[in-house]
Write a structure and sequence with these properties.
By secondary structure, the chain is α+β, with helices and mostly antiparallel strands. Helix content is 70%, strand content 7%. It has a 4-stranded mixed β-sheet with strand order 1-2-4-3. Strand 3 and strand 4 form a beta hairpin.
Amino acid sequence: MLTKFAAYVVAIAVHAFTLAFAALGLWTILRNPGFLVSWLLGGVFLGLGCMLRPRAARLSPAAEVLPRETAPALYALAERVAAATWAPKPRAVAVHDQGLGAELTRVGLLRRPVLTVGLPIWLALAPAQRVALLAVACANARAEEGMIIGGARTTLAELRAALFGGGENSSRRRAHEDMALTLGAWAPHTTYETAGTFGRLVGWVVGWPAIVAGFLLDRLTRGWLAGERARAREIAEQVAGPGALAELSELAASRRYLAPLQAAALRGEDVSVIRRGALDRAALRELDSPRPVAATIEAGESERLDEELKSRYARMLRGLGLLS
């Protein structure tokens, strides 16, 4: 509890640092509104404050949000598993053609819970493993850092990228080489590299608080998040059963389901044929796996889920064929 409190203190200090830039910009402009320099300096400070503002999580542009009326069975299953794991009820369900898992995240300023499901792994899973996939996603959502700490991490990431992430500019490098080749001995000694080195030096001097704050947040939240993730796994096991969860973990880590999907996509097989093959491959593994203990999905319900996603499966398989 003490480390969590300390992490919140560090995060609030990061947000105060961001607000200080915005306040300094407003003060600079309002103090001397008749001077152009005041507007220039104030604009720079306001721009820094805007750049370092906390970012809300966003849905991947490659994800497609499914209307509830087109996927009622998927929404019902997601809500049932979320209730079993005491996770927030998903307000929307999205699918990702190249996703290799599932994730329940809060997106936007309103922090709306959205469940994103990767279609390749979803197509390859048996019904019990589908429950396990959703249970893990929903249980892990309980271990999120929250807006204060998560927002501070986005601010620090933006600051590190601005100060240290630029690297060497290839265009300026080529311009300097052309100038040296053209002018030879008369090329100026004050090179682009000197300016770049000076800028990186200033960045290290000014950016050390960001490095320290990021290090402190990592150290202070490491144990707390590890405990939350362990608790999330326990909840997922209670909902889906340890056997289904273990099989899902092995399948997700090995990704052995991708090769059969890609081969079937290249052969141009129908979605129903591919799904039947995936169920046949999962049948022997499921014989030794206990059924879910808190949330279940019957074969008929799983078939309705596949029917709802049939057109998305076809699109996903076309993409896998191109990636091959």
